[in-house]
Amino acid sequence: MTYVPDAPTLLAFLAAWFVIGITPGPDMTLQIARVMSSGRAAGLACGFGAITGLAVHTLLVALGISALVVAAPLAFLALKICGAVYLFWLAIQAIRHGSTFDLRPAKPARERSLLSHFSQGVAVNLLNPKIVLFFMTFLPQFVRAGDPYITGKLLFLGGLFTVLSIPLMISIVLGAHQLTNWLRARPSVTRAIDWLFAGVFSLFAVRILLAQSR
């Protein structure tokens, strides 16, 4: 299929998605906090809000980067190199500061509708500048600047990222109580995830920099 990347690229993308998916961050923290304070339905509502945010990011990145490739291929190359530098920065931050996952007990929340929880999930995802920057620099690492099907490939990869995130999010929300208790008793696990995240994204950064230097 025209818009499906080759097997090595797809496998690398899936490996990166898995590491991102299990790395605790603001979305996961919000979802688990809602489960602890308002129940699983609220957590799922927040989760699907975040998934919606990922779909929006995918569309904006695909259309924006595609336009950039057509208008200025050198600018796209610069974006990829900046992306590699950003991935290095993320790796360093993960090692220096550790996970952003907050395991403190959630405070009781006032009664809110599921739509309100969903909207908050969307807002936290869309308004997080780190996620915006991450999507802008992550997806381009898996396409070539001269690829005539770049829009379709970016949409495919972003869509795959979003779809795969749904069962993972549901599993995390449904197992929120057990997950928080288990991680609270094993801080070394979250630290190991930080190192895994740092290692994978350092490799991607090196890969893209070496590719551009040849």
UniProtKB/TrEMBL annotation:
Compartment list: Cell membrane
Record's protein name: LysE family translocator
Topology class, membrane: Multi-pass membrane protein
GO molecular function: amino acid transmembrane transporter activity
Keyword set includes Magnesium: no
Transmembrane segments: 12-30, 42-65, 71-92, 154-180, 192-210
One Pfam family, short name: LysE
Record carries keyword Nucleotide-binding: no
Matches recorded under PANTHER family: ARGININE EXPORTER PROTEIN ARGO (PTHR30086), ARGININE EXPORTER PROTEIN ARGO-RELATED (PTHR30086:SF20)
Keywords: Cell membrane, Membrane, Transmembrane, Transmembrane helix
Example of a GO cellular component annotation carried by this entry: plasma membrane
